[in-house]
Structures
1.
Amino acid sequence: MAPEAKRGEERNPFLYSKVVDGLKKLYKKNLQPLEEQYLFHGFHSPLLSEADFESKPTVLLIGQYSTGKTSFIRYILGRDYPGIHVGPEPTTDRFLAVMHGSEDRVVPGSAATIQPDKPFRGLARYGASFLSRFQVSEANCPVLEDFTFIDTPGILSGEKQRIGRNYDFTGVIKWFAERSDLILLLFDAYKLDISDEFQRCIQQLRGHDDKVKVILNKADLVSSQQLMRVYGALMWSLGKVMPVPEVVRVYIGSFWENEYVNQDNAALFDQEREDLFTHLYGLPRDAAVRKINEFVKRARLAKVHACIIGHLKQQMPAMFGKEKAQAKLIEDLRTEFLKIQRQFHIPAGSMPDVEKYQEMLRDYDFRKFQKVNERMIANVDKMLSKNVAALMEELPSSSSLPSSVAQ
Amino acid sequence: MAPEAKRGEERNPFLYSKVVDGLKKLYKKNLQPLEEQYLFHGFHSPLLSEADFESKPTVLLIGQYSTGKTSFIRYILGRDYPGIHVGPEPTTDRFLAVMHGSEDRVVPGSAATIQPDKPFRGLARYGASFLSRFQVSEANCPVLEDFTFIDTPGILSGEKQRIGRNYDFTGVIKWFAERSDLILLLFDAYKLDISDEFQRCIQQLRGHDDKVKVILNKADLVSSQQLMRVYGALMWSLGKVMPVPEVVRVYIGSFWENEYVNQDNAALFDQEREDLFTHLYGLPRDAAVRKINEFVKRARLAKVHACIIGHLKQQMPAMFGKEKAQAKLIEDLRTEFLKIQRQFHIPAGSMPDVEKYQEMLRDYDFRKFQKVNERMIANVDKMLSKNVAALMEELPSSSSLPSSVAQ
Ligand SMILES: Nc1ncnc2c1ncn2[C@@H]1O[C@H](COP(=O)(O)OP(=O)(O)OP(=O)(O)O)[C@@H](O)[C@H]1O
Ligand SMILES: Nc1ncnc2c1ncn2[C@@H]1O[C@H](COP(=O)(O)OP(=O)(O)OP(=O)(O)O)[C@@H](O)[C@H]1O
Ligand SMILES: [Mg+2]
Ligand SMILES: [Mg+2]
């Protein structure tokens, strides 16, 4: 079964992009003005940038050389990506972020770290020798509307690897792992051993256990009985290396476009692929849900913040005694918060921490605050109840939405 | 495939019994007189008893309740054994040694520990409450000519088990493990968890890792994909629990007389069973080889020992100065050893440790020693080169015999 077939059936194409584009527009139009007017960034987090919206559900592939990482990506894309190398010897010699672009091109690592619409600024800290081993491969390919894939150099065993590498490999793995939605560890029927460096990489994934899945690739190249031995040996050593009690999910099969060599387990491999694809193509929806969730939380917080700042401004005397009035307002902030809650019908649980605000407010001059802008706040309310709700409807099954979004 | 078929083809029935009976006769006729005459037991080990010859290749079964331990034994025997209980609830409530007997009967635990022809004397130390939970089931069944099976009560999880048991369960497991040739840990597709007590049992098996094999039973009751999950989960937790790097061999299948419910993996299960049977039916041969090996080593040592004692006796003066002569002989033992070596054509490597003998000889009165008995020694030589060699020929493939035997 070609991945196309699967994609055609169950995948909701561009779902993630649609949602995120929608949120970006709503943010610029309704939320950003409010955040700017009431100095949201000073109290909470900076304005959202292009890159905050642009980072897509990311799949990180890690494994020994020649286990089929690059072939896996090609299989999912249904085509080559710029700068692709596939071969039985160690081939991929760098980290590659395979991303969507309007045309096929390669962006070298250092350049990629300064592009404002790419989430790679943080990689600069790994130095020039790493950046010379990092590139962005842009391809105009529909799958990449919803995903970014991180292809990595195969892990070698023993001394060999250290010779070529003069950068912090496991550090880089950790950086990408933190920013990925799915981390695939690839093994194949002939490459099961977990070298020291591989083990260090796996240890870097601690805390991301729910994102880690394993692929036992090329499973069609061995007999059923051999496969059981191979698979058993893999689980045995993964059990020793991974510090969690829950069994990691291993997908057994052959993840490329060719026919199975040994057909004995074809039905199993097909089911395994289906399960993996279901998980994979569920990621954009999950990520979209998460983005909406965060967006709603942020919008509610920005609104409450605006009410607080606007209210405080309105409590200031018109002419004299401003400093004293400001000090008193900070001191009595708990009472003011109660007034704000009542006036704007804010649930008690949605009010921020009084003491933190007392702390932060000391750095401001209340005279420069803006009054409550009823129209702006109404806009945010409308955005949440109408536009964001409409985006939510795009998502396949709203029954499983987190409660904060579904309410 | 019924186990009968398999046994008919490849098994050399009674092989083990034949070899051991042969050795026993040879021992009584040729070696024991020599050992007695030259006080071998005082310098090395006691005379061999009936029980030393009688203990057969032993298979110990351990596992959660209802994983099919008892059914496995019944399957191999091709019949019930006295006192058998099979059922889905915890059924086997005691340790059962299933052994050969001229007729079917049950010997209670305490009685079994005092039978001279049974190797269970050592179990007395586990006390009366254990012995009331131990029995020997004798059955007149051909398989039992070559094997003893130890059926054990199913391991329960949590508190349940401790209530019923007022003896040292893991201690008993350890005792049997030391005396077994094969230790089978049984799991089934629905009972994978390794309880605390089970884990303690597995830890008792440390040092016997080469004897431990695992059975994943009832594998035909689940789908292929479920089986992979189940098997993977088992390997994962075994990897965590077993303290060795080498992957333990797991035999996957259904080990009883019934047809497979799910036929999808029939070929795999058949192969797995064949592998297990090959290993199992290889045990008597391996054990026979080991017995022969030990017997040959013992006979050579006894012969050398007889030469030493006889030689020393012959160096003693006929009348006066015996004590001084004995002291001098002990002091110059290294020189005497060289003489003995030359006189009896003993390879240097086969002479025992001089200092140990010096130590031990001090406790003896050389006057009471016997002279060298050429005929007795010739008998032992002949026994080795003719009779033991003939027993060796009974063994299927002498190419893989240990060198000490094959020479
Ligand atoms: N599912 C598969 N079955 C059999 N062979 C495969 C499969 N996937 C890839 N291969 C072959 O394995 C070799 C390695 O593939 P590939 O270059 O994709 O691996 P890689 O993990 O990216 O290696 P590296 O770490 O060196 O970049 C190639 O010869 C490829 O054709
Ligand atoms: N290979 C098998 N496939 C399916 N069912 C089986 C198989 N072997 C045994 N059973 C069933 O499982 C149940 C438990 O079997 P059995 O009594 O042999 O297990 P046990 O390990 O000896 O249990 P206990 O520890 O309680 O003595 C019985 O109902 C038996 O019929
Ligand atoms: Mg590659
Ligand atoms: Mg039982």
2.
Amino acid sequence: MSAPETKSKENAKGKTVLKIPKGTREWVGPEMMLRDHVFNTLSDVFNRHGATPLDTPVFELKEILAGKYGEDSKLIYDLADQGGEICALRYDLTVPFARFLAMNNIKNIKRYQIAKVYRRDQPAVARGRMREFYQCDFDIAGEYDAMIPDSEILRIMVEAFRGLGLGQDVTIKINHRKILDGLFQVAGVPEDKIRSISSAVDKLDKMSWEEVKKEMIEKGLTAEVADEIGSYTQKSGGRDVLEFLKSNERVAANETVKEGLADMELLYNYLDAYQIADKVSFDLSLARGLDYYTHIIYEAVIELKSEKSTETRIGSIAAGGRYDNLVGMYGKTKIPCVGVSFGVDRIFTILKQRKEDEKLKQRSVDAFVMAFGAKNGLLVERMAVARELWDAGIKAEFSPKAKPKLPQQFKAAESAGVPVAVILGEDELAEGKLKLKVLGLPDGHPEKEGRLVEKTKLVEEVKKLLEEHGGPKALPLR
Amino acid sequence: MSAPETKSKENAKGKTVLKIPKGTREWVGPEMMLRDHVFNTLSDVFNRHGATPLDTPVFELKEILAGKYGEDSKLIYDLADQGGEICALRYDLTVPFARFLAMNNIKNIKRYQIAKVYRRDQPAVARGRMREFYQCDFDIAGEYDAMIPDSEILRIMVEAFRGLGLGQDVTIKINHRKILDGLFQVAGVPEDKIRSISSAVDKLDKMSWEEVKKEMIEKGLTAEVADEIGSYTQKSGGRDVLEFLKSNERVAANETVKEGLADMELLYNYLDAYQIADKVSFDLSLARGLDYYTHIIYEAVIELKSEKSTETRIGSIAAGGRYDNLVGMYGKTKIPCVGVSFGVDRIFTILKQRKEDEKLKQRSVDAFVMAFGAKNGLLVERMAVARELWDAGIKAEFSPKAKPKLPQQFKAAESAGVPVAVILGEDELAEGKLKLKVLGLPDGHPEKEGRLVEKTKLVEEVKKLLEEHGGPKALPLR
């Protein structure tokens, strides 16, 4: 069963319309398993780094959310005023985290949260824009020595993508807001234009330099200033970018650039210790939209194959940075933070596509227990055998009929992709034996006809067959 | 850090009040781990039986919920009307399940859902009544031969409590609505009083027979009728209850009782096949409040020690039954269902209490990497060692300072309950060695001073120490 999206069945006679709210979806079956696999992989990585999971209420007091999202505040879902407190559904996981820190007077924490957030936006289901969707945030809050938590976040990103089997395909672009701002100063961008020019630069991954230059000129820069920015921001690489910046006297003399350079020098030492420098690309065009980043910024990108053409495009599947001024907003003390948000919906879509490409079949049940040629259906016997399998941790099912027909049982097992059939016959049982059969074998395969085994060796023999013929195991499900 | 409950910090100057909404709570740290352990144990059992997890949107169209909860409809949380669809937060998991089946025209499914539900009730946090809380529902929907899914639910309950370490303490009371209704008929209870007398009988686990009898008489029964009911409903046991009922001619002749008896005879055969008859108590006083049960009903109970006295009381931690008429409510076809709802909040509280009783310490980090006596703090070296541990799946942390002091590092490790310290010293590193130390050992213990190991054997040696001295492992966290 695959997850239905806002499927509706209208009823002309004024009966209840059976649908789920616009912009929401349901998760069930293999999609739910794959989704949980993504969540579990990420959680495992976070836990390995000593992080604690956090679960906050789905709604917050309205005043907690008020004034935090600017223009986008209109997208907040309010609860109806039914007396008592005025509440609204959470819009992201950052504001609840900030509220949590201030409320409990927590000065430092490594926390993660994987949870649904709500935005009353115009949904575009095909493009993945939903009104209810998952966010996965990992953040390190607290005063620490420079770049230590920052480099750990990058390490966590690499571990996460490795865990998801995407390690080969993902590059993490990094940059530093201070370097970028300093470069704009050096080039002569007026202070009040820096954020707007920054957002033009951020488009260099999707637009040509000529187009970006045009946008900058429209925004009020001269062609010379734009060209100088271009000479910096088209540079990317590794540690050599540090040398590139230091080799330019005017750049190297800028105080803001210097601050950023000091951070990045440290960072590269730490990336070496973590053996991940090769996964990271220092990209001076990376600017990130959000205003609240103050120091390092990063974005993990992956090449996506288009479904309709042979073109590939670059997709962002995780992003973040250091934001030292945001999380103290409720408390008296500023709490510096660095964090990353994984685009779990996009990661899910990529993995789903790959699984389909590779024709991977997930099995949710290991063994199907059947009766053959018995007048009484051997129900109690099938139950007892299933019980033995369950006790051994083997996922097992049987037909929920007293006297099922054999073809029906085979059909049920095969359509569910169950690899092993345990077949009970009266004569065999009388001799203390059972037949095990691997399903889906080609004709002529030596195991095609199955094998008789001692009933006492049931579990051991089923495990052996699963080992040999079980195919790709079900994703660890939880 | 333990989870705060509606903690508030009022601010006289009219600043934002930092609290979470009334009747909600947050989960973090060891409590969150224990909660996830409960969820994962239950999910594992459901998956072993071939069930599929389902995740539905947190809000439904208001009309889907309308008219489903009678009096309690006033407890539904509505979303504000901000234009577009009118929605409300889900009140339980049953109505969304019914809507899911009808919307997707699903005729049979084994599904489970563990999710938050919302009730605008007067919260009583101390007694565990919350406005946002978890439900865990497992249901088998579909037309099957009698008592096959029903007995599997009972088996699942036993497996779940075993998995949670409560197998020895839990008894599952069972009864059958048809038997109960038939007994009332035989005793002469008028048809329109059956539900109300049924609810009086259900109190026999908390009240004496005299009190229940008094209530029945107040509800309009004669003392004789009440006494006859008493003679039936005070009976409990195993298969012998079937014999008890059959031995009474008037009871055995009642058509409604007969239907129930046939079911229960079948059930006992199946319980034997599943080897769980000893965990089940056939209790003729079990009635269950909800009107919608049509056949078998059950309730898992556990003896709870009172915190304040030596008294014990009986708590219900899971309950359910067959409800054949409820889930078809949106569709054209009736879909018979049998299911169970686990009281996950109460289970969590019991396990938490036990863990405290047993002074079990959970560890969330396996190893703490420290520097000793080195002028430069050996930061990059600590990072490289942590990286090796992470690569081996070992949960590791280190002090996020460039030059931490040794006592601070020990304090951080010990207060977090980390069992193993990996200590780096310049001289030892020069010889390719590291010191491993088990934390929290008593004076005089042969391992107290730690051991020097080859740096190349780091992972292997740490694993060995964790094996020997790691204490109780962290609960599997996800």
